[in-house]
Predict the 3D structure of the following.
Amino acid sequence: MNVKTGVAKLREIMTNYYIEAKTARENHRLVAWITSGGPVEPLIAMDIIPVYPENHGAMIGASKMGADLCAKAEEMGYSGDLCAYARSDIACSVVNGGPIGGLPAPDMLVCCNNICGTVLKWYEIQARYYKVPLFIFDTPFCHQAYTPEVARYVRSQIDEYIAFLEQVSGKKMDMDHLSEVGRLSVEGQKLWQAVLDTAMHHPSPMSAFDAFIYMALIVTLRGTQVVVDYYAGLLDEMKGRIAQGIGVVKAEKYRLLWDNIPIWYRMKWLSEKFASYGACLVADTYTSAWCGSLKYLDESDFLHSMAEGYTRIYLNIGVDERAKTIMEMAKKYDVQGLVIHSNRSCKPYSLGQYDIQAMVERELGIPTVVLEADMVDERSFSEAQIETRIEAFMEVLAERSYV
Amino acid sequence: MIHLKKMEKAIASPFDFVPEERAVGYVCSYLPEEIVLAAGYTPVRLFGVGGDGTKAPSHLQTYACSLVRGILEEALSGRTEKMAAVVFPDACDTIRRLSDIWRMNIRGPHHLDLVLPVKLNTKSAEIYTAHILKRFLDEISSLAGVPISQNSLKEAIALMNEIREILAHIDHLRARGVLGLSTRDYYTVLRAAMVMDRYEYVQMLREMHDHLRETEREKPKKPRLFIAGGMCKLPEIFDAIEEAGGSVVGDDLCSGTRYFSTPCRTDIDPLKALVKRIHARPVCPAKHQGLMNRFDHISRRVEETHAQGVIILVYKFCDPHAFDFPDLKKNLAQRGVPVLLLEIEDPLPSQGQIRTRCEAFIEMIDKG
């Protein structure tokens, strides 16, 4: 597999996945909408097709259809200050718009609030709209600690979740099968981490912009063999590039770390902009969130360990712990600067970034830059302003590299 | 009106009335105040300074709501540094991050997160709430250096229940249209309940209530309005509604009836009773009690108060309320209740515009 065929293969897998989801009814299969950080393994084990409105939101953004759909949501009464994934998805349900003509209607909704409070409201709205049952997987926020009380509460909800799926589907959960899905999920996450880790190499064989594309599978098909096979192939490809000394950015000069969700409608522009300075965004906090909980997961006891794995994810922890994670990543990937996307759409991700920025500058002594934008709604993107910010940031980097 | 001036002053500068070292600041009405009271502290709700100062903008982007920015500004200015503790009940995304930023930047008050469940309608969530309230009680008790007995908790519940009961009576006078207080003053009385020494407050409230009962007076008939939203500390809005010719007869506000509704049970273990109250209270949209509970509750209250229209107040950048708005409006419209949305900020950018919109809305109701 080379990178080109790698992306083509990924597109093929994603296309087949969406065809399968859109024809679920004809094939007598159930569809569950689930949040991106939600526990998907029980759905896979019950042969229920998981559909991710957030992945759909990213596709809408990348297709530059975000502004229109967000404006439509605003006509429906939703404030323009709300999350653009939510706004575009809510509008899409009504107009069946977007790049794939809307998502297949859900038979049930599974909302895990480990990423934000927004998903709770979003899924309540969709549960009323589609008149389908909603399961809320409530993962209490871990500002500083994961307490025994939280562990017990989340663990008890795994049983409630399985009971909910059994009730909606009218089938019993095969617990052995669930263990197998759990094993595949962990294997997929390990391989994804290994793929991301190849960026530790100088020059890096891939960038965060590539990871933003490759991540589609760890988000949507986690717990299946397809993911394991695909990332195993991708890992080989990256290792091959390392062996040949191929870097994704020609003459890699600077290595940078990205924080927050991508600016989906400007990926190419940003990627080229940074590359024009010889800068490679070697790592990011977003794509690594889908393997960041590996330390809590236990393949031999997936069901139990998933409570902790799904609760202690990057967006469900305190700002200081996030800063620590960022600083560890900065060292691990040997970066010279931090690029912070202050994303109007995502308050839990963005609020606290100024403190993270100050800590990184103080403790690592590397320059940082804040790009004010939005992940999907291109009306919040000012090219001139972002360009100026990046130019100034690259100048600082250049000055420092001569010292 | 007796005591009103003092209450106004207490809201403006709570620490002129409550010694700061005996105060426990809090940012959301899900705090079980009884536990704080039983430890000998006074819970003081932080409302923020209003408007951007010079300090909060280095920590919070412009898309954090003005309430949270105001609370952080107040804390960074050192106005709350001598408080014994500050409690952050788990609420919206922005308050969660406020807690982190406060903890990382502000020395002084003991910092406490009370991570309540988001789901309030399941047995397992209730068990979890019971566990964390116990943990909270132990922490407050050790901070105060006094054990919290069952009796002291029961006493605190009795005190809070009395405050709730009197406030509910006053609210009833308002719904009947015989309350001798302006809307602005009504909310002053309510907000004072959240910042004053509760023992002193309840005495003032008793006297005030007696006085209000004796001076009940039929007010001229005006269009009856109901207000829904989160916390509202902007008296200019209430003035604007009244000056536009409307009469506020009820609300579903965090700094309104939601604060005092749902008395705490006294027939069961006191800690359990506090858990039950948290799960039974009219819900904040940052929490979940079912898909329709909040809308049904508001509709029922609108019906009970014979309100002819609903004004929905949403702070700019308040996600939970902004997400609920379209379906809440639809729900009310299906019952023939007209709705006006006012997007607000602290401080209000333009009072004139709000008054004009209220006038148009009230005129429409009056003609209808």
